[in-house]
Design brief:
Shape: globular
Strand content: 15-25%
Largest sheet: 8 strands, parallel, barrel
Number of strands: 22
Distance between the termini: 42 Å
Number of helices: 12
Length: 498
């Protein structure tokens, strides 16, 4: 089987994977943008979605979905006004012709509008009430992408509507064969993945799973732990460390019910990954006060967003081992020991070893062993099997003190592997007995999950199945990766909506 794998990997698992091509989000108002009023006091109305800034995208996955609409005026209404929202199927053909697309019209019998589509706007106000549009999932709907134009019309005496912005074009993706829930089979290994919200919607993890093609079909979670990347360590005017969040990461955290809770409900553990901010302060060189303050802040973030733990990514700290004669190895071990005590044994602490990591962590530090304090550890070296017990090399010449082989991530894989790296990994996984006999095949790491959208752009997700190939294939024939039934959906699998 693994000989066959060697040849099908570079061709995107064309037969096994069901990821398909996508096209750009092409939903744009046909008649251009809403005109400026130029300050002349003209009151013009536009139809807006409450939940989408532009061009609503609805996913029907074995369940109904909904959105809320309202009218917004550029100036306060002179008098009370009423409007009516209705489906306008005639605009589907017009849209397709103008944009060279072939969207099907979403069947009207699967759409309901509350209050019979009636909107009211009081005199002197600029915002109307809201109505709810419900999109009903039905098994008779074929998987595909549909278009639903909803157009608003002004009733007698109402403020005028912008002809350019009186219609919302809903793009509706129907996932016809996607099951709402799977009965997950427990894997015999752990897979840890990184997701950077700046690049990828974290909810993509809930679309990815490993499955068998034989009967009965078994389903395995592709990710046991999701590390949201990256909070960075900065320092304030008092030289105290604090965590800085990029806008997208901060947005995902502050909307945890939408982006984090669903992952946890699907049995993924969600952690925050922390790395340096290139300001010379970090995990290893803190005095007692700095350390306590920093650990308190980490705990506050973990508790506030109900996270399952942290990944300490030991890079970009630019720490110099000169000031106050810091022993960075002891400082790191003391920091992690205090963090473990503060977070508790039920939270995950993982550690990413890099060239910047203190060399002394491979030795006991005042009877504190870093490997005893962390749940998992790995290096930031990509697409290379790292076995420090058997094949010492460079700065990972010895195992982290106290780490067991069952907690060591021997392979940190990446979507941008070269052909040479692919050949190397296939050979190692197939022929190097240390992967199995030496028990370092328990933890696999995916450096960063990127958007899954195209089956023709040479960016595939095969890098996520090394663990299953090594551990699940012989028992379950499980080296396929989902989702299933998406063959006709030509869009990004889970686009960013923030």
């Amino acid at each position: 089987m693994k000989q066959i794998l060697k040849y099908i990997l570079p061709f995107a698992f064309a037969a096994g994977f069901v990821f398909t091509a996508c096209e750009e989000d092409d939903i744009t108002p046909i008649n251009g943008t809403f005109p400026e009023t130029g300050g002349i006091g003209i009151s013009m109305g536009i139809l807006r979605s409450i939940n989408y800034a532009e061009n609503p995208l609805i996913n029907l996955e074995q369940a109904n979905a909904s959105d809320e609409l309202r009218i917004e005026l550029t100036e306060p209404a002179i008098q009370a006004s009423t409007y009516t929202v209705a489906i306008d199927d005639s605009k589907v053909d017009t849209y397709n012709e103008a944009n060279k697309t072939e969207y099907k019209s979403f069947p009207s019998q699967f759409v309901t509008l509350s209050s019979e589509g009636k909107l009211t706007l009081e005199s002197g106000k600029q915002l109307s009430n809201t109505i709810t549009t419900t999109f009903v999932f039905d098994e008779s709907l074929e998987a595909g992408t549909y278009l639903l134009p909803l157009t608003v019309k002004a009733n007698n005496g109402a403020s005028a509507l912008s002809q350019e912005r009186n219609t919302l074009y809903y793009k509706i993706n129907v996932w016809g064969e996607t099951m709402p829930e799977y009965e997950w089979t427990e894997k015999n290994y752990i897979q840890i993945v990184g997701v950077d919200p700046e690049l990828t919607n974290p909810l993509i993890i809930n679309k990815l799973h490993i499955f068998t093609t034989s009967k009965p079909t078994y389903y395995f979670n592709v990710a046991d732990i999701v590390n949201l990347q990256f909070a960075t360590v900065w320092k304030d005017e008092s030289n105290l460390p604090y965590l800085y969040f990029k806008n997208d990461l901060e947005y995902v955290l502050s909307h945890r019910n939408k982006y984090i809770t669903p992952l946890q409900q699907a049995e993924h553990k969600v952690c925050i990954a922390i790395k340096g901010g290139k300001e010379g302060i970090g995990f290893s060189n803190l005095d007692e006060y700095q350390m306590n303050k920093f650990i308190y802040e980490i705990k506050k973030i973990v508790d506030k967003y109900h996270l399952d733990g942290v990944n300490l990514y030991d890079c970009e700290f630019e720490i110099k081992n000169t000031e106050n004669n810091f022993d960075l190895s002891k400082g790191l071990c003391k920091f992690v020991a205090s963090l473990r005590k503060t977070l508790g044994s039920d939270k995950i602490i993982s550690y990413t070893q890099t060239k910047e990591s203190p060399e002394g962590i491979m030795n006991d530090q005042s009877e504190i062993k870093l490997g005893n304090l962390v749940d998992y550890a790995w290096t930031d070296q990509l697409n290379k099997i790292i076995n420090p017990w058997e094949h010492p090399d460079s700065w990972w010449s010895n195992p982290i003190a106290g780490i067991s082989k069952e907690k060591w991530g021997a392979l940190n894989s990446d979507i941008h592997a070269t052909n040479e790296e692919i050949d190397y990994l296939i050979n190692e996984i197939e022929n190097n007995l240390s992967m199995t006999d030496e028990n370092i095949n328990h933890v696999f790491v995916v450096n960063r999950v990127e958007n899954v959208s195209l089956a023709t752009d040479n960016k595939y997700v095969w890098y996520m199945i090394w663990g299953s190939d090594n551990n699940l294939y012989d028992e379950y024939d499980a080296t396929q990766i989902g989702p299933r039934g998406y063959e006709s959906i030509y869009i990004p699998l889970v686009p960013k909506d923030y």
